[in-house]
Amino acid sequence: MPGSRFDPKITAQWARVRGLMRSEVGDASYRSWLKPLTLVEVEGGEVRVAVPTRFMRDWVVSHYGDRLRALWMLENTEVENLEIFVEAPRTKPVVRQVGVPRNQAPAAPAAALKKVEPATATDISSISAPLDPRFVFENFVVGPPNEFAYAAARRVADSEVASFNPLFLYGGVGLGKTHLMHAIAHHTQQKFPERRVVYLSAEKFMYHFIRALRFQDTVAFKERFRSVDLLMIDDVQFINGKESTQEEFFHTFNDLVDNNRQVVISADKSPSDMEGMEERLRSRLGWGLVADIHATNYELRLGIMDAKAERIGLEIPPQVKEFLAHRITSNVRELEGALNRVVAHVTLVGREISLETCQDVLHDILRANDRRVTIEDIQKKVAEHFNIRMADMHSARRARAIARPRQIAMYLSKQLTTRSLPEIGRKFGGRDHTTVMHAVKKVEELRQADVTFCEDVDLLRRMLEG
Ligand code: ADP
Ligand code: MG
Q1: Alpha carbon distance 305, 309 (integer Å)
Q2: Which of 53, 134, 282, 387 is 20 to 30 A removed from 361 (C-alpha atoms)?
Q3: pLDDT of residue 335
C-alpha cells in the first residue's frame, strides 16, 4: 500500500488534493493524468510526486502543476513546493501513448521490414504529439456552425475502413479543429486499439522530414509513415512554401490514401484558398471530404458555456452567460479563456459571479471583441432599420417614431459595447446617464411585453454582431 508509508495526516491531505483535482478536471482527465501520480515524499516543505513517463510529467506539469501545488499549499501550510518527476513503474505504464505499436508487423516489403522495422516501432509513437484528454467528442458542443464537420469527424472515427479520404477540416482560429482531430484519435484508439494513430502539427511533420533529409534517411521516413493507420496533420497552412517538404508530404499522403489509410488534415483555409501551395497538392487535398467550421453563433456560444459550467460544477447566472455569449464573439478559445478568468477570480475572492465582476475582470477581452461594433455602427443600423435620419439619434425630438428607435440604439449600445452609461449618453446628443438607464429599462420591458418588438431588437442585434 503506497499510502501506508505516510503519516495518516499526509495520506488524508493527498486524498483531498486528488479529490479536488478530480472534481475540477472531470473524471476522464483525472483518470488519464492524475490518477497515475504516486506520492513519494513530503519533506522540508517539498512534495515529491512520481509519474511513469516523461511525456506524462511534461503534460501534468504544464496543465496541472500550478493547481496541484496551490491545493497542496492550502491543505498543508508547510508545503512550499511541488516536484513532479519520472519514475518508471514496476508494472506496465498506466497511460497509453498515441501510436501504440501493433502486435503484428506492418505490411512492408520483407527487405525493408528487416532494416526499418525496429526503428519504426519506436519512432512512430515518438513522432505523435500528445493528445489533450479534454478534447473528446463528448465535450464538443454541436450546433449549426460545426455540425457538418462534427458529423464527418465522427464518421471517420467510427468507420471500419477509411472513409472520406482525406477528411479536410478547415475554419478560423479557435473554432475547434484541433479538438475534433484529438477526438477522432481518442475515439479510434478506444474502438480500434490495434490501430496506429499519429497526430502531429504540420510544423512537426516538416521538422521530422528535414531531419530525415539531413540524415539521408528519407526512405525510412516514408516507411515509418506507411505503418500508420490514421494520420492526422494539424494546421497544414504551415506547410506552404517549402517545396521539398510539400513534395514529401504529397508522396506520403498519396501513399497512405492509396493504401486505404485514413488521413485527416486541418487548415485555416479551404484547399482551394491555400496560397503558396502547389496546385497538384492543393487539388489532391480536396479529393476527399472538405468540411468547414463556421464562426460560432449566439446559441452555440451559450451551449458551450453551459457545458463548461456543468463540467466544472459551477452555477453561472443566466444573465452572465447571455452577456458573455453576446459579447465574446471572436472564437471559442477566447470564450473559454474569459470564463476561466471569471471563475478563477470568483474562486479566489469568494464572491458570486455577477455582471459587474465580468465587466471588471474581462475589461480587455471585452474591448478587443468590442472593436467591431461601435455606438456609431449601432446608431446607423437602427436609424436605417426604422427609416429615420442618423441626426435624430442626437436630436432632442421626442416623437415616439423617433424616440423609440433612439432608445433601442441606447439599449443596444449598453448590450454590445463596453461603454458606460454616461459615455453612451454623451454619444446621443449629450444626454444624461439616467436617460440611458431609463431607455434600457424601457426596452427591456417592451421586449417582455411585445414579441414582435423583441424579435425586431434581436434581429438588429444579430445584424450588428455580424
Ligand atoms: P482550432 O484548432 O480550430 O484553433 P481548438 O480546437 O484548439 O481550435 O479549440 C479552441 C478551444 O475551444 C479548445 O479548448 C476547444 O476545446 C474549445 N472548443 C472549440 N469548439 C468547441 C465546441 N464546439 N464545443 C466545446 N468546446 C469547443
Ligand atoms: Mg488548432
Answers
A1: 6
A2: 134
A3: 93
